[in-house]
Specification:
mainly alpha; two-stranded antiparallel ribbon; 18 helices; about 65% helix
Amino acid sequence: MLALLTHRFGLDVADDAVQDALVEALNWRSIPESPAAWLYTVARNRAVDSIRREAAAARKLSRAAPELLPYDDDEEVTPTMIDDAHYSGDEHLRLLLLCCHPALNRDAQVALTLRLVGGLTTAEIAAAFLVPEQTLAQRVVRAKRKIRDAGIPLTIPADLTLRVDALLTVLYLIFNEGYLSRGTGSGARVDLVEEAIRLTITAHELMPANAEVEGLLALELYARARHDTRFTGDELVLLDQQDRTRWDGELIEQANGLLNRALARMQPGPFQTQAVIARHHATARTAVDTDWPAIASAYSVLLAMTGGSPVVALNRAVAVSMADGPDAGLRLLREVTGLDDYHLYWATKAELLLRSGDSDAAAPAFVRARELATNRSEQLHLDRRIAELRDNSPRF
């Protein structure tokens, strides 16, 4: 609905109109026969009313104080409304590409598209960026204002290369939020997972020879193949404990084909590298068969590609600990900075300390991870780990 109305009225007007329609829906006494049609009609009417009010106000100002207008006083004021009767195409992808316009900086591109297209809350996006919620909210407001003031159109550009990196980053973050939500609900959001895959497939159709698009799609399919084994009830099941016989072999084969084609193009990139790591996990018959030295090596490559990302450095420490032992992982973990408020940093530290035999140091790390975790499935998993440690450690 937002994408359709943005095409016709512009982003600012459309966003406000959709929010107004949703607020009005709170007054429903019974659900309409077609809620989506009701919402669209109300939002469209609100947008038309808004533009007409703006045009009327501009005409009044033109008559009363033409010197205050940002244009010549004899210029006709005409609201912008595009006839969408014959409009077709993937509205979500168009809106994504609008938000990924190169006039916006990368953080603003990603934040805006996650908020408007991905349906993520400001808090969820802030958690993904590891920044305060207010900081993230300001990025979204500034980005919307820049699109409005610059008159950036809702179109699919002839040359997608200027937007592909931002587009793939957005799709990746939408998928991640669906795969394990940063919100307070339990487990995964399958709607976001499926929408990220659908949009990545659409991007692949537009750019069939782009190795990074193929890499991202392969990565998403590898992860989607494990979905049915990732939770027991509401609790998270770690990778090494999942029932691999229930993984979706067809999706894994599709991912293998995509990744093989991507690697054959000899254009390495971070999404392909992550897909290589995912393939090592997906094709290991048992957890013991996992090629951890190869995964650790791939993470070293990814670390260089991402400019020393602390999250990648954290994952590399885990892989090294599996290949060379917990002490080797802990040495690398001590070099990781900037993740003091990231629950997975503390959970990883706790597990490595526990594996190294230092349960006394592991206990407070588990507690800190539990304090920072917001996903209910992760909270339940950490509660169980803390209870197990308490039962086995009288000094807890």
